[in-house]
Every structure is written in structure tokens, then in C-alpha cells.
Recover the amino acids of this structure.
């Protein structure tokens, strides 16, 4: 809009140098546009841009500042000034933590933030062209040039590539054997996708879970799954595999067999202990099979509560394919027992419903009697162990391998107790569950011993808890307890030998806190030799053997040291297993190397399955035309961005704990305890 000739509206300045407040009202300048525009001295209803000089009308009654805001988004001189000088703008002037905060406006930063919002909140690319978003930007950041949907699409791909490069750098630095989970999902377009998730603990003892592949797969055959998995490893430059957690599909068994063969042919160090413990069966899936096996033989009274009558209100509905919904439904139904009893006496339609015949022309069971409610109570108490263990297995943001065997023992103990029940239905149920349990978790042959070793690496348990569990399951004095202990110690000692050699051939210097009487003296000629500088294989072996001899008792020392009994850290939070190993890594340098890889093992494939929920929202009926490459970019980048936010939160928490420890040490230094307190 050009300048208006409104000479009749001009106000004559009074001749007196003093002007009363009533003589000339101060016009409002609260809009951010007045940081860019200035009123003309001879015309209060007109203003000029401070950067290009263009004049606009600014009558507070007729046009206000809308035309000025429009100009700010297009003024090249002003936009160039922002980019070159980073014009400071007030981000927040209201309440909250950001009140009065000053930050430099940057077009590129705002554009990248928009891209991250699109990815993390699973928004369509066309979101930036919606009127609501445009209006929000106009009110909040009027000088932000909103990118088009095509620009957003290019930026998503660019951010994906940048994040992938950064993650590749992190993985290349760790150079450790990693654990994985994988699964297959069929999308709304009937195209199958295979997801691969990497799990590892970094040098700062932070657990990481990163999706590294979400690619189409032509079929569900074991060989195809193995080939797809190997392509993912090659793409990321990953050479060492510690474990792979999968569900119990027969194709996965074939895939694991193929992977063992091909990885061992690639590199002698690609697999830990020749891949004997690489195959981890999903614990949550096994629990589901065991529970469903028992619920198939459930009594008619419980079956009535499951599927016949509970239809609305606050009672959780049952789903025939999810056993945990049966537990939640029974648990909630028990809270309304009194209401059900009253309905039988007072609600005639309720009572009449049970007198009708069902679709099979059979009379319905019910209403529930006292014995039915007793059966429901027994069932809830029994299924609670399965429900709690499922939650423990399904966590993907904390270590799960250390508590896996503990949960398995709880399940086995619960099934054994139910086998001696006086209720014939429960006895039959326990028998069916025991058969399914032994198929996957029978102690001497079926269970993966690495899961028991992970429990030993918990300083609160060690072998003390392991032996307690053996005696609880098999009975004190049972020869099977000794057999199980020997099997576990054999795996533990072999792992320790492997990590001893790795420690000796690494750049780490031995720093072992062992008793002098336990350290065997070796020839002084090897004392100052560096393994990396030795070409002779025998000499290299002897130097490694020197280190191994010096620390041969580190495993024994760890097992003999007292159990850690503190349940909270300095912040009053629950015991952090990784923080304990971080603190004690100098005391147990070899054991800490082992712990970093063993404790990273996921005991369920939930981490990979959760990606399917994201994929189902991204590739819905409204966006089914997205290409597989774009779907992978969106799923992976979202996972990485969210993981970055969690990591920043954990770093802040660790920093706070370190500060608390430092202040506690100062308190002890300047205020030592008195003799009486000692």
C-alpha cells in the first residue's frame, strides 16, 4: 500500500514547548512491527520501514499493523539484516521458565525445528501449508518464512542423512559387539517391512536403543531375513554381533542358523563364543505362549467372565488374542462383585439374559456364584506374576537382562505351586503351562545360559542369588543345583578369558585392585612390552598371558566381594546398575568390559515391535503413497530424535547426582564425624 495524502488529518503542533498529556495522546506501539517501522514525524498515520524506506499507512483505527507484518516477511533488506546480524527478538514475555528470554532469530534454525516437529509428531508434509499453522507463525514469529511441503520433504531427507552420519560416527568409536532385535510387519499397503534395532552401552555407561533399518522385505523366509539383516550390518559398518532377540517363529530359527554360518566365515571375532549364546528368544512372547496354553483349559465360570457379559462401564473388556486383557478384566471385575450380586437380585433383564440360549442353542452359564468369584481371585493372583514379568521384559529404556532369570524363576515357582492346588482346573492348567515352559526355559538344556550370567553381573545378586534360585526350583541338595552351577560358571569363566585377552590387546592399561598374595609374579622381560608393538605371535601370547595371570582372580574377587545392599543413589532414586559399573570399572576392568556387552542384551523384541506402531501411524490410509525410502527416513529419524531428548535428560540427571556427591564429599571433609559418631 502506498502513502496516502491525508493532509487534512495532520495535527498542528502547539506553539508552546510544553505539551499536556491530554493535548496529544501517545499512540500504541506494542506490536513487534514497531521494531522495524518508525512513524513519520509529520504524519502519525504513516510509517516507514527502517531498512528499505517504504511507507505504509498505520492508522490504529482503519488498518493497524497487518500491512506492516506482511512487509516484514517480504522485505529483502530486513531479511538480509536478520541473517547477517542475528536480530535479537523476545521469545517469551509471559510467565513460565522462558519469561523474558532473549534469543537470536535464525531462519535456518526455525526451519530445522519445523522439520523436527513434522517428524517427531508424525505430521503430514502438507501441515506447513495449513491455514492454522500459517496464522500461528504470523502471530508468533511473523518474520519466519514458512517453507513449502516440497522444501520440507527435502529437509527431512537431509536431516535423516545428517543424523545417520552422526550415529555412524558414534558406533564406529565404540567398536564393541552389539545386541539386536528384529521383527517383521505388514503395512496397510500389504508391503512387509523388517525392522532392525541395535542395543549397546556406550563408554559413559548409557544404554542406547537405535533403529538402524526399516526396509521392505519380499518374504518371511529365514534365508531372506538373514540376508536383510546382513545388509543392515554392512550399511552401518557393524562387524561384531553379541546377540539377536527374536520371537519364536520357525523362520527366525533358520535365520539365526544362516547368520551364525555367514558371520563366522566373515571374521573370527564377529561372534562371541562362536555364537553359542547369540539366539535370544523373546521373553514376552514366551510368557504369552505359556499363559495362553493355560487359559485354553480354564473353567467355565472364568470363561463366562471373560467373554459373555462384561460389556461396558469401568470393567476392562477382554480380548481373546491377549491374555493380559483377561487378567486386567478379572482384576477390575472383582472390584464390582457387590454390584454384580445386587444386579442378580434387582435387575430382571440381567437375570433373564442368563436364562436365554446362546447362538449354539445352549443355556448360558451364570449368573456368577460364590465359587466363580473364588476362582477369579485365584486366577488373578496367579496371572499377576505373568503380568509383572511381561512389564519387566518389555522395558526398552533400562537394562532388562540382569533381572530376566529372576522373572523366569518367579514364573516357574508360581506354576509349580499351582500344580499342587486342590482345584482340578488349576492343576490341569499348571500341567499345560509346565510343558510349554520346559520347551523354552528348561534349566539345563533349553534356557540360554547368558541370561543367568547377566544376573550374576548384578552386584546385588551375583552367584548367591543364582544358587538360591537353583535350590528354590530343584530343592536344596538336589544334584541338579550343582550341575546348573557348573554350567553357569563354565560360561562365566570362558567369557572372562575372552575379555581378558581383549583387555590385554587393547590400549587400556591394567589397573586391577587385587590382593598382592593372589597376583602371580611373571618374568620381568615382559613387564614393559606393548602388545600392539609385538610381531612375534608367541611373544604376543606371552604378554597377553602376563596380563591374564595378573588379573586371573578378578572374577573370583568380584564373586567373593560383599553384595551391594544400597537400594538408592544420592538423589534418592532407585539403584542404577550401569552407574554402579561406571563407578567400579577401575576396580573390575575386565568384568566391566563383559558387563557392557552382556547387560545390553534385550530380553524381548518389544523395542522393534514398537516401531510398527510408528509405521502404522505414518503409513496410514491418508498417506499410503509414501515410498519405502521415505517411510524408513521418517521412522528412523523420529527414533533418533526422541532418543536424543532422552539422552539429554539423563545427562542432566547424572550431572545433578555428581554435584550431590561432590557436595557430600565437601561436607565430610570440612565436618568430619566426631569420635562418638564413629
Amino acid at each position: 500500500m502506498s502513502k496516502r495524502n491525508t493532509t487534512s488529518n495532520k495535527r498542528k503542533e502547539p506553539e508552546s514547548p510544553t505539551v499536556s498529556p491530554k493535548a496529544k495522546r501517545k499512540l500504541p506501539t506494542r506490536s513487534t512491527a514497531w521494531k522495524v517501522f518508525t512513524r513519520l514525524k509529520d504524519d502519525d498515520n504513516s510509517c516507514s520501514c527502517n531498512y528499505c524506506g517504504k511507507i505504509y499507512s498505520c492508522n490504529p483505527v482503519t488498518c493497524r499493523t497487518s500491512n506492516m507484518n506482511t512487509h516484514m516477511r517480504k522485505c529483502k533488506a530486513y531479511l538480509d539484516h536478520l541473517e547477517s546480524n542475528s536480530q535479537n527478538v523476545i521469545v517469551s514475555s509471559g510467565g513460565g521458565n522462558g519469561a523474558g528470554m532473549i534469543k537470536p532469530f535464525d531462519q535456518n534454525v526455525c526451519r530445522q525445528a519445523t522439520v523436527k516437529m513434522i517428524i517427531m509428531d508424525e505430521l503430514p508434509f502438507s501441515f506447513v501449508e495449513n491455514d492454522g499453522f500459517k496464522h500461528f507463525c504470523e502471530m508468533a514469529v511473523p518474520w519466519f518464512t514458512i517453507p513449502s511441503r516440497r522444501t520440507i520433504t527435502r529437509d527431512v531427507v537431509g536431516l535423516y542423512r545428517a543424523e545417520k552420519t552422526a550415529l555412524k560416527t558414534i558406533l564406529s568409536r565404540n567398536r564393541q559387539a552389539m545386541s539386536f532385535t528384529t521383527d517383521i510387519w505388514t503395512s496397510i499397503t500389504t508391503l512387509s517391512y523388517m525392522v532392525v534395532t541395535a542395543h549397546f552401552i556406550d563408554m559413559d555407561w548409557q544404554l542406547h536403543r537405535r533403529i538402524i533399518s526399516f526396509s521392505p522385505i519380499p518374504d518371511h523366509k529365514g534365508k531372506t531375513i538373514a540376508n536383510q539383516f546382513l545388509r543392515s550390518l554392512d550399511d552401518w559398518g557393524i562387524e561384531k554381533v553379541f546377540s539377536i532377540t527374536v520371537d519364536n517363529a520357525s523362520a527366525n530359527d533358520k535365520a539365526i542358523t544362516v547368520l551364525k554360518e555367514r558371520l563366522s566365515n566373515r571374521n573370527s571375532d564377529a561372534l562371541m563364543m562362536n555364537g553359542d549364546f547369540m539366539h535370544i528368544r523373546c521373553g514376552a512372547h514366551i510368557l504369552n505362549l505359556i499363559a495362553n496354553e493355560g487359559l485354553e483349559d480354564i473353567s467355565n465360570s472364568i470363561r463366562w467372565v471373560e467373554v459373555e457379559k462384561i460389556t461396558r462401564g469401568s470393567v476392562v473388556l477382554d480380548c481373546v488374542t491377549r491374555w493380559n486383557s483377561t487378567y486386567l478384566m478379572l482384576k477390575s471385575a472383582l472390584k464390582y462383585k457387590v454390584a454384580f450380586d445386587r444386579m442378580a437380585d434387582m435387575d430382571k433383564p440381567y437375570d433373564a439374559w442368563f436364562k436365554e440360549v446362546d447362538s449354539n442353542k445352549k443355556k448360558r452359564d451364570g449368573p456368577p456364584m460364590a465359587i466363580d468369584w473364588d476362582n477369579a481371585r485365584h486366577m488373578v493372583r496367579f496371572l499377576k506374576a505373568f503380568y509383572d514379568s511381561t512389564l519387566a521384559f518389555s522395558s526398552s529404556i533400562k537394562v532388562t537382562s540382569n533381572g530376566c532369570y529372576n522373572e523366569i524363576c518367579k514364573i516357574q515357582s508360581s506354576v509349580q505351586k499351582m500344580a499342587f492346588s486342590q482345584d482340578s482346573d488349576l492343576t490341569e492348567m499348571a500341567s499345560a503351562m509346565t510343558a510349554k515352559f520346559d520347551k523354552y526355559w528348561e534349566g539345563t538344556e533349553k534356557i540360554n545360559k547368558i541370561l543367568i550370567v547377566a544376573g550374576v553381573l548384578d552386584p546385588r545378586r551375583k552367584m548367591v542369588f543364582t544358587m538360591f534360585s537353583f535350590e528354590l526350583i530343584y530343592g536344596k541338595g538336589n544334584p541338579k543345583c550343582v550341575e546348573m552351577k557348573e554350567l553357569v560358571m563354565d560360561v562365566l569363566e570362558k567369557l572372562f578369558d575372552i575379555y581378558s585377552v581383549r583387555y590385554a590387546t587393547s590400549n587400556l592399561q591394567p589397573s586391577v585392585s587385587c590382593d598382592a598374595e593372589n597376583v602371580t609374579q611373571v618374568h620381568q622381560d615382559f613387564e614393559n612390552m606393548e602388545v600392539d608393538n609385538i610381531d612375534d605371535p608367541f611373544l604376543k601370547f606371552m604378554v597377553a598371558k602376563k596380563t591374564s595371570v595378573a588379573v586371573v582372580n578378578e572374577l573370583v574377587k568380584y564373586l567373593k566381594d560383599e553384595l551391594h545392599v544400597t537400594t538408592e543413589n544420592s538423589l534418592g532414586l532407585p539403584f542404577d546398575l550401569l552407574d554402579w559399573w561406571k563407578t567400579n570399572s577401575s576396580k573390575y576392568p575386565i568384568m566391566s568390559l563383559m558387563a557392557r556387552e552382556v547387560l545390553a542384551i534385550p530380553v524381548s523384541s518389544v523395542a522393534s515391535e514398537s516401531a510398527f506402531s510408528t509405521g502404522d501411524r505414518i503409513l496410514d490410509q491418508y498417506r499410503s503413497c509414501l515410498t519405502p525410502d521415505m517411510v524408513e527416513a521418517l521412522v528412523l529419524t523420529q527414533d533418533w530424535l526422541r532418543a536424543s531428548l532422552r539422552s539429554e535428560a539423563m545427562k542432566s540427571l547424572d550431572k545433578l547426582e555428581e554435584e550431590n556427591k561432590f557436595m557430600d564429599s565437601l561436607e565430610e571433609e570440612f565436618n568430619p564425624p566426631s569420635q562418638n559418631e564413629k
In short: The chain has 24 helices and ten strands.
